[in-house]
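notes to self, project folder thing:

trying the whole complex as one job this time. last attempt i did each chain seperately and stitching them together was a nightmare. two parts in total, labels are on each line so i dont mix them up again. if this works i'll redo the older ones the same way
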Amino acid sequence: MSEPAVEAIDVTRSYELEGGVVVNALSGVSLRIDTGEYAAIIGPSGSGKSTLMHLLGCLDRPTTGALRIAGADVSSLDDTQLAQLRNETVGFVFQSFQLLPRISATANVAMPLVYRGTGRAERIERARTALESVGLGHRLDHRPTQLSGGEQQRVAIARALVSQPTLLLADEPTGNLDTQSGVDVMRLLEQLNTDHGVAVILVTHDHEVAARARRRIRIRDGLIESDDGAHSVADQSVAP
Amino acid sequence: MRFAEAFRVALDALRANRLRSLLTMLGVIIGVAAVVILVAIGSGAKAEVEKQVEGLGSNLILVVPGSLEIGGAPSASRLELTDVELLGRAVGDANAVATTVQSGELVRVGDKEVFTTINGTNETVVNVFDRPIARGRYISAADVDTRRRVAVLGSSSARKLFGDVDPIGRQVTIAGVRFRIIGTFVDVGSTFGVDRNAEIHVPVTSAQRLFGVNRIDALAVKAPTIDSIPAIQKRILDALAEKYPGDKFSAVTQTQILGTIGQILGLLTLVLAAIAAISLLVGGVGVSNIMLVSVRERTREIGLRKALGARQRDILVQFLIEAVLLTSIGGLIGIALGVSASLAASALSPLPAEISWWSPLLAFGVSAGVGIFFGVAPARRAGRLDPVVALRTE
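result (full assembly):
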């Protein structure tokens, strides 16, 4: 359980706005999260936590610094390779579920496998297994609009799981849910973390949610303010 | 992404916006149908004319004053009746030379009137042309020599003037002069409403007196074999050049006439097809427009697909397939519409329409091509969307 799932060394990310103004969303973040860890990234809005999540999810590349996801150096990958890395190692859970409304729960869950080139029969089989594992075996052919918010988020979790990622990124996963559904979703994430050993990174500003995580990384103004479970990143980077 | 999956996704997206998809296709449907119909009418017209010209008879050389080509002005004729004998000597067979002098005249029987072409000819017409007699007899050499006022009626003129009554032996009044009917022609069909069955033939000598002229309009020579045609053409032109120094004459075969007519009608078909192609182009712009709207509407879907591992190419292919599906389904509907409209036109109206095998194929190919051409820009835009930005879009 000591393999690094994510390793960031002095990562910065800046955006140039129209008119040439440069905004530093991340001003130098070093971070290591191992496989099987369960960490929460906490911070007020504008702190840079979304930018960090996009970087960890391979949706974006750092402006400077080194970022390794599942051992691959993100900066050296082109768009196609980045898409492949995303497909194979990262699962996303979004605040607003991000399910396609026209297709069934099974088809939604099977989507990551489409881009991996998995055959249709196997896709459906694996999507069903994933839906059953989140307790939605009776909702396979329902469309997202026919499901409750909690059920929709569980479909999204099944979709994140189906590709067997090493890293599951959840962006405010309980933000659009009532209390009970929120608790259910959190339990499910915890269960996945312990049962499957997948590293779960939770991005939230909800302290109750963050309190359940085993490690809390607090971020403010593009820098890590506190980290109650930090590994020595410097040691890792010096080691041969 | 597997092609079949991209195809299913695209089909699903089109089905989700049925009305919009149909309206977008409409531009392509109209364009393709127009191409198919206009090409069918163009080639139908060409085939019809060719049939008519071939129907004149084989190994025929037509001799007219002036030069016969596109844009050539018609020349006044200086040919006269003695040229029939001149050409008879030149080709070595007087029976192989026919002549004509034509004028439109009013023809009357009792209270029935028709305005039609009066064709002054000689007795060799039945030998030179393929113009069989239904009843009675054709004009004889004696009729020509003695300037007899006799006439042979085309089938439609006979019907209009006499109805069901047998016209043989009865009288008609042509431009106020009485003629006796000696025969009727077999029905030969019509070209573009110009009814060759309406023609009335009279002896050339009687016609010249009736019209008050000494000229003849044209001569026709039947060559014994195809191979002899060039030599005969030369002998005809040499004889005429000797008699009328400085004047220009043409001795052309059906093949040459067909070539000229083919050129004109080919050009006409091309122009019609080009006009129709413009509407296909406009349809393509409509497809491009709708695809841009579709990309904008589905920005979040694109962002999500990219987050789940879709490559730029996967998204591009998905939207390109959608555009090509729109235009090729539209193309197929357009072909069905165009083919049935063409068949209906040729069955119900005098417009001859002929479906050539290549025009539906071409129309389909072009419409699919239009889909690719006009789909590429929106599809590229979709493929290049930044997933971070796309996911944030509301």
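what i see at first glance: Residues 234-240 of chain A have pLDDT under 50 and may be disordered.
need to look closer tmrw
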